[in-house]
Design goal:
Elements (H helix, E strand, L loop, with lengths): L1 E2 L2 H11 L3 H29 L23 H35 L2 E2 L25 H38 L17 H4 L1 H7 L8 H11 L1 H52 L18 H14 L3
Antiparallel strand pairs: 1-2
Helix pairs in contact: 2-3
Length: 309
Amino acid sequence: MADTSQAATSLLTEHLQYTPLSLIDDIINSVNNFVYQGVGSLETGLLSTPPEKLGFKAVGGGDGDGPEFPDAKQEIEEGLHKLETLLNSTVDKNFDKLEIYVLRNVLSVPADLVNWVRLSHYENISYPPSENAPTAESVQLLRRKLAASRAVSRALLEEQTCNETLLRQLRAIVGQGDHGTGNSTSGDLSFLANSTSMHALEGTPNSDQQSLTINTNFAVSQLPALRALLADLRPKLAVLKNSNTGLAIESAKDELREERRGYIEQQTQSLLKRNGESMAEHAAVVPGRRVDAEEVQAMEKLASLFDPV
């Protein structure tokens, strides 16, 4: 199938040095010139031929100037005009068919070959690389940047999730997340945002002159709530203190036991030193009295009698 796109037309124009349509127009113009020349020659011949030879009847003149043919010239002009119109119509009709056939079947390039045709004057031409042509290093850098941006995006999403969770917890603590649920606890701090004094202070203009007074009034207004929380925490503090006291007593007993064990160990080592016992680490302790040097020498002499040299 022929390709009639702009790319195929440009390829043929560059190869032929003229557009395909201009060739068809030149052919049609040449044929029209031949038609005009033929009609002009025919007109000259008819006008130069005597009218009586063309079959026109002469009208006799009363002055003796000879016969006249008043209808000859008009009929010749009308006939030539009709002939020219007929020839032009025939040429246009048939050469339109020729134009369609030539553009589709002769001056055309198949659609699957347009991108593969290389003209002769493009042979052995090397194109310099573009200044903005990507390199392997630039592509790798872009990949690293993309990976880093994705990692940052994931970290930001995780941080956003953590922040939202923290905000929900804080709103629940100050009593803004579970109004009307009845699940209030002793650690509820909603009085900081929902107290009557706080709402009263919100309507007061916070100017530099009144800031200290407003803050003092707000702190004083919260003292009853703080006293209630303190009264609630005192029993828990006492229980915690008692548990810590029991642990301290047990730790004191262990410390005394260690001191006693260390004292006994120290006295034992001193006694062993005075008796001349070995103080080497992991030395075995043999019960009984101390053996003198004379007894050792006597035992060696006795052993030599049974084992003579």
